[in-house]
Write the structure tokens for this entry.
Amino acid sequence: MSPSVNNIGSSLDFFVIVAIALFVIGSYGVLTRKNMIVLLMCIELMLNSVNLLLVTFSKYYGTSDAQIFVFFIIVVAAAEATVGLSILIMAYRSNKSIDIELFNKLKD
Amino acid sequence: MDALIVIFITGLIGLFVGMMKKPVLSLSISVLGLISAFILMLYYKSYESPFGNYNGLNFTPSGNIFALLVIGLTLLIVLSGFNYFKKDIEHTADYYGLILFSLCGALILIGFTNFFMFFLGLEIMSIPVYVLVGIRKQNTLSSEASIKYFFTGSFATGILLFGIALVYGASGTFDLNEISNSVSIWKEAPAMFHVGVLFILAAFLFKVGAVPFHFWSPDVYQGSTDAVMSYMATVVKIAALYSFVTLFGSVLGASGNIYTGILEIVIIASFFLGYVSALKQSNFKRLLAYSGISNTGFALLSVFTGDFGSLWIFLLGYTASTIALMTVSQAIEKIDSEDIKNWKGIGYKNPFIGVVVLISFLSLAGIPPLTGFFGKFLLLSGNYQNHLTLVILALISSVIGAFLYLRFVINVFAKESHAEKICIGPLHITVLIISTFVSIFGWTIILF
């Protein structure tokens, strides 16, 4: 039977709390910031908090599959950042600004 | 699996062939690849992994028919979008390449057995679509839609990953079978597991575009081209819904009914918000987007039963209608089909278009002998014992939907003397005939 979360020792608590804090900071940034580059950074922060969480659990369970998952996440985050930055440049050319509030032409 | 490889290689070849700037060649290569993938999917069902007993991908019989549906729909979309793509001669191959790569992701999302493959499939499916939405680089609306889709999509990815990490923390594995095993062993699932499941649920509602997280879909649909919009409204939605039902219908659903109440509220809100908002739209794509939100609500009913058969029939009817309508919209592009006012009298002057629009909308509304009716009927009859309120509300919202669709059809058949006679290209006629045929006779597949 797999160990349940209640058994996680106090040493792991620290990492879990840090990861959750990073995630909350990242998602708060996505919801409130206006500058699109900062938005990209916040999304990256969310993904990295997930990486930290996965590595923590992987260490706890003594399995390596979560650590491999982390590499996948890093690769996908890189791909996403590439696409996101190029979309951002395209948007900048058409709007001469990277303020997300200015992109409000599509609405009911 | 062979189908997946064939589609991927076709996409790669298509990108290189694209350097020759021959749109017809790109089209024929993609069509050839898709047809051979369809045939492979039909005949080589099982797949032996070369990596021992690691099976990240496994197409179950129900996954197989969904994969066939997705490949067939992409074929229709590729055909119907050609008239638009060939104008943009620099980027014709990019369209085909990106659609095929995205289709790879959709297939992975249909065959996944663990969270590795699930996450990869979701991203492989989404990232090309971010690009496809913004492919009209000079168009302000297109880049705005792309920005919106990208940020909401990657935010949803972050939430999804956090949910997966929490589920992993609670169960110690990414494999769906092992997770459902440990769920059945627990007397009471740990709080971390429930929080993880709720995070995954939220991310999914983002991806399928159900109410609280639907706000992006009308904007994004409006900003993208017709072919890309029909791709998002059909293939992306099918793959996301299938994986939704796989995850929540069996694996995560076994953990208890904490999420059932949330899903019920989501479904009811989707029914009404979608149709009621659609009533006041003047843009054709926004209308279809809002009616798509309601149809997503219907499709989510299958989560409670975990029944893929009824979901398949329903999605068959919905997608056939959507493809037919978007193809009509592309065929009458020169009179600015985005504005609903311009559709007035089209069916009166062009009986063929009129009949296609009529049948598609009747099928969407769920009028008896058409495929859309059988889909809704099967979904509702599966649910009426346990969720009677949901079924009644679904029927009430269907009446609003029928009003919306019939109002549009009456508008299309209005006697308008200065409506134009429009000649349709052979590719569009093929797609229209196939999708109308599916709308009328698609339900006969139940008999087999």
Remarks:
- Helices of chain A lie at 10-32, 36-61, 65-95.
- Residues 1-7 of chain A have pLDDT under 50 and may be disordered.
